[in-house]
Specification:
By secondary structure, this protein is of the alpha/beta class. The chain has a domain at 418-458. 34% of the residues lie in helices and 21% in strands. It contains twelve helices and 18 strands. It has helices at 9-12, 39-51, 85-92, 94-117, 136-151, 164-170, 190-203, 267-273, 322-335, 380-396, 420-442, 447-457; strands at residues 28-35, 57-60, 76-78, 129-133, 160-163, 178-182, 185-187, 207-209, 214-218, 221-224, 228-236, 253-262, 280-283, 289-293, 299-303, 344-354, 361-365, 370-374. Strands 1, 2, 8, 9, 10, 11, 17 and 18 form an eight-stranded mixed sheet that branches. The protein has a four-stranded mixed sheet with strand order 5-6-4-13. It is globular, with a radius of gyration of 21 Å. Bound molecules: flavin-adenine dinucleotide. The site of flavin-adenine dinucleotide (FAD) has 45 residues, from helix 2, strand 3, strand 12, strand 16 and helix 10.
Length: 458
């Protein structure tokens, strides 16, 4: 059940009518216990039950299924990772970088197959993604991204350039000079997906406990506020909320992303816009914006850039941010100005998880039975499926090809102590925003601040 306090578009649909699930109120024993009932936790349970059908698997969530980013996101199910292919090659070598992207692109087929096989209806539609360039610096960024992928052996079938008129024929957005197009992205209704997955894993025999916050865990046992769960293997899938667990205060930093949704567009607005293939759309600015056209023809539009909260705090009151929501409305109106005014009906937000090295990972130690997956930096809808499949094979210890991917046991160092973390992250966000503003005003790259940004991210 997605929190009713959020004015999220995805909470509107009649999909959250399941009765609240049981709390973990007395001690239990199991083979595998997963902390967190978002995409990472649910997909892990799904693949574990497929690989080892007689294993006993439980999921324990502090809130409800889909309470976290999985029930609130922008619905981009994208094969693109938060790390570019050349960043991956610098860290892990060319072959592992290519394999990581090859598996990530193939994940969309995998997800689509499961949705069909398990009858999960979540408005999944594979229209690809367009990344527009609105100034000459963004033109350079978009064309070099295409060039890089081609240098690594990917082709126009994976990512290619669209001229201004080709973009406008697909989505008639404003101020575009050119764009890239990739088919490796789908749109989905995230809350329908996460609730559908929960139903499927329960049918496979997985027990989900809700409203049972885990306060700490170590090899063999999990402590919740009311009971203990003893398990041979414990997998943490808590993403942006990870700092709520003792000993993980500095493992992932929660950064907030915010969204708005419009009322359904009129026939006239849709005629102006085109957008018949419902590609997801973003542009090549540093401070990410992202949007999709929903199945009921609303624009769901999101953006990052909200300040990081001291000591990695997450609170329900942070799920709305008037200033950032206003900026997101302005960006949406600027991009879609050709369709005139449109009502904003929903505003919401939530935390995503960012590791110190800005790279997601799948970690499992067979000796202790402890594992974790995530740190997707806002790109976890598809990546959580690949991460969970990888985790299931690590637990099954079957030497599957996925267990050799670059992100396996590539654990980041911890974040800095406060107040360094607070000033570092917020400084970085300010720099990103000021680079965008400089580039759009001058049409020139902001080399000095870009260098500072790269140094911090490195
Ligand atoms: C506004 C927004 C828009 C986004 N848009 C996109 C997008 O379009 N495409 C994309 O790929 N990604 C997007 N993301 C990111 C994506 O949603 C996440 O990467 C993904 O959902 C992570 O899934 P998860 O299961 O790892 O974590 P979550 O979905 O956050 O789940 C974590 C779960 O752990 C539980 N939990 C936390 N702490 C504890 C504890 N101590 N004890 C027990 N349970 C606990 C929480 O209650 C929660 O249910 C977006 C994120 C946000 C916030």
């Amino acid at each position: 059940m997605v929190s009713k306090d959020l004015n999220s578009l995805w909470c509107d649909a009649a999909i959250n009518d399941a009765a609240p699930r049981e709390k973990l109120s007395s001690d239990i024993e199991t083979d595998v216990a997963i902390i967190g009932a978002g995409f990472s936790g649910l997909w892990t349970a799904y693949y574990l039950k497929k690989l080892i059908p007689n294993s006993q698997v439980v999921i324990i969530d502090a809130n409800q299924v889909g309470f976290g980013a999985s029930g609130r996101n922008g619905g981009w199910c994208s094969g693109f990772l938060p790390n570019s292919i050349d960043e991956l090659a610098d860290t892990h070598g060319r072959e592992l970088a290519i394999e990581m992207y090859r598996q990530s692109f193939a994940t969309l087929d995998e997800i689509e197959t499961v949705l069909v096989n398990e009858s999960i209806d979540c408005d999944f539609h594979r229209g690809g993604t367009i990344c527009g360039a609105t100034n000459s610096v963004q033109v350079e960024r978009v064309t070099s991204e295409i060039f890089k992928f081609h240098q690594f052996g990917f082709t126009d079938d994976d990512i290619r350039q669209l001229s201004q008129s080709e973009v406008e024929r697909r989505i008639n957005v404003s101020n575009i000079q050119l764009a890239s197009y990739t088919p490796h992205c789908a749109v989905t209704h995230p809350a329908k997906l996460v609730n559908g997955l929960a139903r499927v894993v329960e049918q496979l025999g997985v027990k989900i406990y809700e409203n049972s916050p885990v306060t700490q865990y170590q090899s063999g046992s999990i402590q919740t506020n009311h009971a203990i769960c003893r398990a041979q293997m414990i997998i943490r899938a808590t993403e942006g909320f990870t700092p709520s667990i003792k000993t993980h205060r500095r493992t992932l930093a929660p950064l907030y992303s915010y969204m708005i949704a419009t009322s359904p567009l009129t026939e006239r607005q849709l005629q102006i816009l085109g957008w018949e293939n419902r590609e997801t759309y973003h542009d090549a600015r540093n401070m990410i914006i992202y949007c999709q056209l929903t199945a009921d023809k609303r624009i769901a539009f999101g953006g990052r850039g909200a300040p990081y909260h001291f000591a990695s705090r997450t609170k329900p009151s942070y799920d709305a941010h008037p200033l950032i929501h206003e900026k997101i409305c302005n960006s949406m109106r600027e991009i879609f100005k050709k369709i005139g005014d449109v009502d904003i009906t929903h505003k919401w937000g939530g935390p995503l998880g960012v590791p110190r090295n800005w790279s997601p990972s799948v970690n499992f130690d067979a000796r202790t039975g402890l594992g974790s997956l995530g740190g997707y930096v806002g790109d976890g809808v598809a990546a959580s499926n690949l991460a969970a499949r990888t985790m299931a094979h690590l637990i099954a210890d079957d030497n599957h090809e996925l267990t050799h991917l670059a992100w396996v046991n590539n654990q980041s160092r911890k974040w800095e102590v406060e107040p360094l973390r607070y000033f570092g992250i917020n400084g970085l966000l300010k720099i990103s925003e000021s680079i965008d503003s400089y580039e759009s005003k001058t049409n020139r790259p902001d080399r000095i601040r870009t260098k500072i940004l790269e140094t911090f991210l490195g």
